[in-house]
Amino acid sequence: MQKKIGLLFILLFLLGSAAFSRTIRISPQWTPQAQFAGLYIAEKKGFFKDLGVDVKIVHPAAATHSDIDMLREGETDIAMSQLLDVLSNYDAGFHMLNVLQTNERSSLLIVSRDTVNGVEDLRGKTIGNWKAGFSDCGFMMDSEYGLDINWVSYNNTISVFLSGVFDATLAMDFNEYYQILMSGMELSDKNVIRISDYVIDAQEDGYYVTPEFYQECKEEIGKCVTAIKEAWEWARIESNRDEAVDIVMEKLKEFNVKSNRIHQRYMLDTILKNMETKSGVAPYMVDRQRFDQLVSLMKKYGFLLNDVEYDDIVINFEK
Amino acid sequence: MAFFIMMNVGVCFLIGFYMIIKWSTDHTRKTAIENSFNKLELIEQNIEMQLSKVSSVVDNFGKAMETILKEKGADYADFQSVTRTIVEQNPNVVGSIVALKPYYFPKEEYCAIYSSKQNGNVVTEKLGGIDYDYFTADWYLVPTLSGSSYWTDPYVEGEASSTEMTTYSYPLRDSSGNIIGVFTADISLDVINNYVNSFQLYENSYNMLIARNGLYLSHGDPSKIMCETPMTDAIAYRSETLKKMAVDASKGNRGYGVLGDAHKDYDNAFLAFYIPVPAAHWTVAAICPVPSVFIDTYEMGNKFFRVSIIIFFILFGLTVLIITRLSSPLKAFAKSARDIADGNWTADLPNITVKDELYQMRESFRYMQKSLISQMSELKSTTAAKERVEGELNIARNIQMSMIPKIFPPYPDRTDIDIYAFMRPAKEVGGDLYDFFLADNKFYFTLGDVSGKGVPAALFMAVSRSIFRTIAQPAGQPELIVRGMNAAISGDNESNMFVTLFVGILDLETGLLSYCNAGHNPPVVMRADGSSTDFLQTEGRKNLPIGLFEDAPYDKHELQLNSHDTLFLYTDGLTEAENSKAELYSDPRLVNMLRSVGSHIPMRDLLDNVLADVEAHAAGAAQSDDLTMMAMSFVFGQNTDAAATDGTENAVEDEKEISDVHSANYRSVELVNNIDQINNMTSWVEGLGDEFGMNMAQSMSINLALEEAVANVIMYAYPKDGNEYKFLLDFDMDENRNSTWRIIDSGRPFNPTTKADADTTLSAEERGIGGLGILMVKKIMDSVEYERIHKQNILTMKVVLKD
Q1: pLDDT-based confidence at A23, cuts 50/70/90?
Q2: Which of A50, B322, B492, B703 pairs with B424 at a CA distance of 20 to 30 A?
Q3: Most A-contacting residue of B179, B216, B232, B251 (CB-CB within 10 A), to test interface
Q4: CA distance A74 to chain B (A)
Q5: B426 and B626 Cβ atoms separated by less than 8 Å
Q6: A271: nearest Cα among A287, A305, A248, A290
Q7: Which pLDDT does position B639 carry in this prediction?
Q8: Are the beta carbons of A103 and A86 closer than 8 angstroms?
Q9: Percent of chain B that is helix, strand, coil (3-state, to 5)
Q10: How far apart are CA B267 and CA B289, in angstroms?
Q11: How many angstroms separate the CA atoms of B105 and B108, rounded?
């Protein structure tokens, strides 16, 4: 597989060179789903093309080889990641620049089997977390409140939670939470804790490039960012929502991803909601205050060793 | 009524059938649902069996391994051996793994020994590491955390593979009971799905298998497998049933529900049945078209409905038939009864052949009809007889009344005589009598009372009166008259009836009254000078009523009356008149009454006063006895030359001419004074009848009247000296069929129209015209007139001839 990708990269590079414009590879975090609808819409509706930028969406080939890995290894040009992971990577020496922030509010939840009135009710409980990451805010909440949670890492299946071995599990509001609901399990607001209500509303999905690529293809990146924003804005229009889901489902089919339209629609709606502030505005940018808050919190609980400056990470194309 | 019964029966039948159909439909519906569950349970059991085939093998191997672990501690080869063996020996097991906890073997964080079938061979390899971090896999996590074995939700092994797998995972324990890892066996979901889809519950139904996480593992629509869940479908189709099914499946409950609207669109509605598969916390379900599930119910219900409808119509028809059969004769009976009531005694009755209650009713009707006919005919004849008797009694009454003098004043030209009499029988005819006549200036009178009442008394009275009339003048003395009468009556008195009688002869010259009172109430003598008003006191022995003893002695008594003295005679019907309290009018009241009235009023007024008083006394009470009164007052010595001639006193000749103006219809016949001439007359009248088209009945009546009149002439007009005397009977008729019949004879003067009495002592042939005869003539003819012209008697009778 790596060989194939390598050949493809060379081929694309040659083609790009020949046309004096290169193909920009954009990679979402994993297999297709509505979380990445903006990308698919921009591709499908020709928003990239309209701006004269040639984009290819490249999905990670395996769960163990993330898009960040791909970016690090030059297998993609623009990767999606959560700010927290970007900071961790920066601390670990891999510098990425945020060229577009789509997520405004955190989607991270803890779904409990029993009803809970607050984080205190989670004390000493066994809670599942993702092996793939994205759980750090949960850990920080545990530390912040001294909950002494027994975290158990598991791969991405709700069946473990459903089997009853966990008291609760971390869940994305647009994904696992809904999967649990769709399994037939009845949940009320009392079964759900939103992490952002207790520790930090860490911003999640954003688009990242290496500083090198940024210097090289600033213009193309700008076009990509514009097209993606345009796509999300298009998707935010209610009347386009069905077509947006069509585009997502088409992608799912192409990649033989097992899901269903109902879930994808819910996911799209939730992602779009999470892109907005509480007043209904989609800022498309990293909030400086929360950035600093996150950095200090991560430092506090050992997820960051050094300070990171907002401007070291965030490129604001609007300016 | 029939309609009412039919309506009621119909409604009862309908309710009954509805209840039965509803009950049977509910029952079969319930049965169909139970049946569906039974079928589904069969599938579930098959699934469980397939799962248990694997799980039991794994459990057994697992336990065996734990024994080894206890005894000597298992090494890599043991794990390799056990995984290989299970794959080799179980065709459904495609892979088996022993995945050990971190550092079970020192320095080895990951240690998973995996055997699988590859191209027909069993290959064993060691897995584990960053790329295969099994510690986070459900098949490792769940058993190690829960301590229990676990069937995973199916998963797709490898991204390229399309085969869903499921894994049974057994927690391995060391000798101290600590979990050291898991032992698993993988099977293809196809193995399970083969059983899920081993049979359809119904035509066009499909089965589903639902995983713990809700995903369809098997579905009629393959695109939904591993993609959709009942809950996503519930949202997509807005189905409460699917939502309930999703929740129930998640809780491990069984249930069923309707998908779609079975009421609005029965054919496209489905029933979802689901039951849990507890071993794996899966759910097996069947989606069945409602018509298929209830086809038996429906068909049975349908058949039942059809049969019910047929039975209903048959029963209803029979009911209608029976009711009609029952009610139509009733209607016919009603009509017959009406007809009979209208007088059609022989009205037809409904024809009933079956010998049932209606037949009995018909027989009763027929009997009633027969009885009615016979009774009515009896009643008719009885009524006719009664009418005849009544008619005859009326005639008899008229005859009786005609026997007694009832024209007052009887001697209008005699101012010295004031007499008035009144008789009122209690029944049609009575047994009282009175009579009087004037002869030789002597006034003969009598008043009596026959014992008993009614026809026998009347006949006796007639006889008594006739005898009086016959013998009074010849006898000349009252006691002789009474004796004669007694002798005549008691001689052949088989009926033992008797008569109380007062007979008097008053000399109008002297005022001497000689009388004989044969057991009768004493008359009241009212002296004109007012000296006394009292009952006539008679000295000596009392006379017996007549009719008792033939030779009984009767004495005469005398009383001197003065002019204007009043003699009041009466029968006991007056003094014994009763009121409603059975109180008698009584002698004292009579005398008081007469005293109060006085004797100086006309006799008619006197009697009217007495009658008014007695009626006032009776006050409407029925008259029980014949009532007769007679009062008389005279002026004596006033009329000495009067010479009354019996029956001829009014026959006055005048100077009129006998009419001889005739029409073309004039006919006449000459007859002689021989009774045989009656036949000649009869045939002559019959001839006229034929000639002028007389009504047969009228012809006969006229004949009868003429016979009477002619016979009278033959019998009495001429002296019986053996000579033949001729007389004429003629007939004429005008254009209006007014007929005139005349008998013209030159016999002695005789006016039959004034003869008010009938001599009942004579036979019909002997009896002269007058009395019965003239009555009949008058009845038949419209008018009867007598004239005496030129010494000839002319009896003119007129009658309108009927066609």
Answers
A1: very high
A2: B492
A3: B232
A4: 21
A5: yes
A6: A248
A7: 65
A8: no
A9: 45, 25, 35
A10: 7
A11: 5
